Amino acid sequence: GRLSFCLGCKGASLAIDTEAASSLSAVFWAAEAVEKKGTGQIQDLACGIGVSLILAKAWWPAHSAAGFLSPEGRCLTFDATATGHARMEATGCAVMRNKADVVD
To answer: For residue range 73-93, what is the model confidence (pLDDT) as tens digits?
Structure first.
């Protein structure tokens, strides 16, 4: 609502709480809005924006005490020396329209 109003957008606006998959969910629903498959009103253009913010500090002591956090401050994904994970904030955005409407 509020962001759509400030940007002057028209059409559907959804707020979805999906924990760490907010960007993926937003892009999925944007793709659903522009597809012509008879499930509702077709939009010419759709924007999917997802944001993950860590606003509470209460998780930090519990995760540290349990040994979940990496002492190096890096998660070392797919590395045999990985010792934990690192929490982060992120955002993702995709603007799309139907492939049939795209003109080269």
So the answer is: 887 888 888 888 888 888 889
In a domain, 15, yes or no: yes
Q: Which domain holds residue 69?
A: 2-99
Residue 71 in any domain: the answer is yes
Distance of alpha carbon 22 from alpha carbon 97, whole angstroms:
20
Helix/strand/coil (H, E, C) string of the chain? CHHHHHHCCCCCCCCCCCHHHHHHHHHHHHHHHHCCCCCCCCCCCEEEEEEECCCCCCHHHHHHHHCCECCCCCCCCCCCCCCCECCCCEEEEEEECCHHHCCC
